[in-house]
Amino acid sequence: MISAARATALVFVAAIAQVAVFSGIDLLATTPDVLLVVVVAVAFARGALFGSVAGFFGGLVVDTATLGVLGVTSLLLTLAGFWAGRYAETTGRGRPFAPYLAVGVMAVLVTAGGIVVHYLLGDGVDLRGIGAGIVPTVVLDVALAVLLVPVSRRVIGTPRLDRAREVEIVV
After folding, report:
1. E strands within 4-86?
2. CATH numbers and ranges of domains, the chain
3. What letter would DSSP give residue 31?
4. Is 168 left (phi over 0), alpha (psi -120 to 50) or beta?
5. Helix (H, G, I), strand (E, B) or coil at 157
6. Element containing residue 42 per DSSP (H, E)
């Protein structure tokens, strides 16, 4: 219960920091996505369900704070939190590189998904810089994950390794 409250507070602080501080920073022609890194770290610590709820909550905070299209960031971060949590539950826990790999993959998927969703909504999307924009985003988010994943583990706690001890076949 306490780690859930800590994880919720961590996601809220990351969402506010994303809007207030990191959205104005331009490194390598992209902005760092602190909230995505924290959502992936929370999903690794707490699982797919909590990761998707954290992604939705953090995305909703960002959407309401920026007065953007309500639900786009929530949708993308919900999916990112769920899939990062599923990766952690199935194969990723216990592997030291897994959160960083998940951040890199989710950075690509969230960037591409954001472009697709904005295109489907009829927003003006510049498709010329997609290839050049994804690589710096992945590099920046993975570098940020090197700093934030250990911090989030200290705040939330170490992940619980819940594994099945026996398999029952029901006929």
Report:
1. none
2. 2-156 (1.10.1760)
3. -
4. beta
5. coil
6. helix 34-46
Q: Kindly provide the residue ranges of all beta strands, DSSP E only, lying in 37-153, ordered along the sequence.
A: none
CA 168 vs. chain centroid, Å, equals: 34
pLDDT at 124: 77
pLDDT of residue 164: 47
State residue 60's pLDDT score.
93
Q: Tell me 30's DSSP state.
A: B
- d(Cα 52, Cα 11) in Å, to the nearest integer? 12
- Locate tokens 């950075």: which residue? 107
Low-confidence ranges of the chain (pLDDT < 70): 1-2, 92, 127-132, 158-168, 171
**Which positions ≥6 away from 144 have C-beta within 8 Å?**
32, 33, 34, 37, 103
String of b and e for 11-47 (b: at least 16 CB within 10 Å)?
A: bbbbbbebbeebbeeeeeebebbbbbbbbbbbbbbbb
Contact residues for 50 (Cβ-Cβ < 8 A; gap 6+): 4, 7, 42, 43, 81, 85
Interatomic CA distance for residues 57 and 155, integer angstroms: 18
Distance CA 102, CA 167 (A): 28
Cβ-Cβ contacts under 8 Å for 97 (sequence gap 6 or more): none
